[in-house]
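Q: My collaborator sent me two sequences in one message, no labels, and asked for predicted structures for both. Can we handle them in order? The first one she listed is below.
A: Yes, handling them in the order given. First sequence, followed by its structure tokens:
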Amino acid sequence: MSTLAKQLSMIRGTRPVKKINEIMLSPIGIAIIGALTLFGFIFSLELVSYTIFILYAAYVAIFGDDFAPLMPIFMFAYVTPSTTNNPGKSEGGLFYGATGIYIIIIAAFAVTLIILRLALDKNMGFKKLFIKKRTFVISMLVLGASYLLSGIGSEKYLEYVKGNIIFALIQFASVFLLYFILSATIDWESFKFDYFAAFAVILGIVVSLEVVWIYISEGVIQNGAIIRSKIYSGWGCYNNVGAVISISIPFAFHFACHKKNSFLYVLIACLLLVGVVLSCSRGSMVGAAFAFAASFIYTFFKAENKKQYRITSIAIIGAALIAGIILHKQIFALFNDVPAIMESTNGSVSFNDSSRFSLYKKGLEVYLDNPVFGQSFYPAAGTMPEFSDVEAFSSFFPPRWHNTVIQMLAACGTVGMLAYSYHRIDTVIYYFKHRTANNTYVALSILTLLGMSLLDCHFFNLGPVLFYSMALAVMEFGKETPKA
């Protein structure tokens, strides 16, 4: 070990550094990051938040016992951008020009320190990074390869080849990198699942508070009704916002299962459910309802204090239902202008698909025209019905097919669909071979994400897939929560 590495190791062993590291790995540390996220979001001071995040990451890279405290940074940085600085709506916003360059520079600084830590620390060095045995690496690499092969041979592949490859690399990196790096740079023997669960719950709370702020600042409620189009953050619309809250719900039930005063965590789960409803994302409402119901039922049978959980949780849910019945007229009026999931026409009830089915039909036609490698992630202008204008391609992120299966078929063809199926089977087999309470809550979160991705493009959005990547690492290497 080099002299510098020895000196840094000695510093990590001092009482002040140990105390700081302890706080970082506690709900208090996560809440501080969450508060900084809200600060940047509300006041459009993301640069301040990002600078502190980078300093935090730099500290972890130099003085952290391992890289576990980095987990929250990725997701909280993702949900920090304010509505004012939405990169798709404000071309002169935060992510362009000098401020955009500044963000790249400070991010590169943190990455450099992380690489140096890997180079100097034998406990998490490059050798360990590449010899660590992992379950999902092969299927992830196969999936990534199918992304990179997308569109080969299609009519206008060469026209979009550069952007397509860059987008494919970003999609692959979002699935692969955090799983690959964190699996080898976290001391899983000392890692506490509660830390990841607390991070997920606080993330859901922060995004729910962002929704509340959007309601206040954007005047979402007009004439007693919600105007859904106004629910737009700096990092996504109502669908994106609702999805992130939804995947946090199972982790509230994890605490209800293992902690005293389980009713507090059921109450938090109920509030997260309210946050999803306020997002007005219909797909997220379905996903959140599944996450809540499945987690509630599983915890009903697995809670360590079954009597307390059953009595208090049923009382809370019952009270919420009674309040809903009493206030149903006001609630219906509030959501009067939000498209209903089911609609009645001439006495017949039908599913309001928001033109999804016509979109999927077109996607299947695209697949049949390009059955091997698909048409690429950047289809020719006019291919996608709701993105018929060439201006749809002015953004780096291409329009997507709002369904993971259709997306893989249309963009990556049969090769992509087989690769995705291989990866999905890989994760399902692993879960059933390693069923624990912790892994079940992770699986419910992932299943919620995948279910919502059958109605939207969440599996091809950066943030949810970063969470997915970390969740798989926790599922595979995290230890079961001991009984209290």
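Q: And the one she listed second?
A: Here it is, processed independently of the first:
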Amino acid sequence: MKKILIITVIVILALPMLAQHCGGCTSPAKELSVLGPTSKQVIAKPKAIHWIDSNYYLIYNWDKKPKIGNHILLVDVYNKNKQVVRDIQVTANAYMPSMKGSHDTGDKKMQLNKKQKYAIPVNFMMLGDWEIELKFSKGSTSLGKAFVKLDIK
């Protein structure tokens, strides 16, 4: 009960900040990450904990700093007991929100690489705002979505 109360307070405190966030804001200081379980959330910080739902969280990173060209998005999924989970299906769809439909990759299944991280190549073909929609499921049950936002300069 105490955990739910803390999460509720965090979400309530974050809502006014989310309402002020505009799609054109690209300053790292203005990027937001909502911590706590939600069915959909925007995640901006690599190497930070981002909850998928109340049982699973992810930590993501890039193979190198994203710029124009191909880069590998790496995702680790953990359960609430901090154990690595590898039996979840993860898909990724990379696109430019400002040009929705023009550069969408469609949902592509992320594969486990040699280091047992979910991985997918992302081709940033032009400068601007990009978003990678991650969808998580276990069997036929959807666990939630997360959106990685970044600005390619």
